[in-house]
Amino acid sequence: MHQKIAKIISAVLHPALIPTYLFAFLLFDTSIVPYHEHKWMLLGIVFLFTFVFPVLSFFSFLKAKIISAIDIPNREERIKPFLLMSLLYVFITYLFFRLSPIFDVLTLMMLGISFVLVLVTLITFVHKISVHAAGVSGGLGTLLGLQYKYAHEDFLYPVLFFVLLTGIVMSARLSLKAHTLSELMNGFSLGLLITFGVLAFL
């Protein structure tokens, strides 16, 4: 894969964008979440706390020379940004819990995503793991969990789409030499199993 294409894929399918993509799909393209006049506001809150704030913090870390590059290739440098990102995700999950049971599906989805990120952060203390793989496979696991729980909904095409995205993202990360195959597979397994378990069985 061409390096420039791999970088574009890594940016467009950045793990911090996966929650926004999933929330947009559930809020506007399924019947699982009942109509609510504040859907755009909810999506905006998710976008701010799961993407905008983390990205701004990453640039702040870069300016302060806490990290050497925005994609943070060094494992040790990932710990502080990942800790902050975890706190933001846990906070937005707490906000959704306060809104439950109206948005219980959305809350469970955010819980699964946050759980994955917290585990990735803890693992990063001792081993490097692909957060890109965990993010996109977490999206796949979320959709599979929703299909299991809501059999009346048809998630076949979204699931197949995320299977394709997972392969593309992992290929891009390998092409960029950002991760080894084992780091990608560890991230993939973690994201898929955790999100599926949370969405299917809670």
What does the model show?
This protein has one domain (3-201). It contains eight helices and no strands. It has helices at residues 3-12, 18-29, 39-63, 75-99, 104-124, 131-149, 156-175, 181-201.
Present the secondary structure layout.
Elements: H1 3-12, H2 18-29, H3 39-63, H4 75-99, H5 104-124, H6 131-149, H7 156-175, H8 181-201
Helix pairs in contact: 1-7, 2-3, 3-4, 4-5, 5-6, 5-8, 6-7, 6-8
Short overview:
By secondary structure, the chain is mostly helical.
Attribute tags:
globular, mainly alpha, 8 helices, 202 residues
List the domain count as a whole number: 1
According to DSSP, the number of beta strands is 0
Mean pLDDT equals 89
Q: Name the assembly state.
A: single chain
As a percent range, the share of strand residues is under 5%
Give the uncertain stretches in residue-range form.
none
Specify the structural class.
Answer: mainly alpha
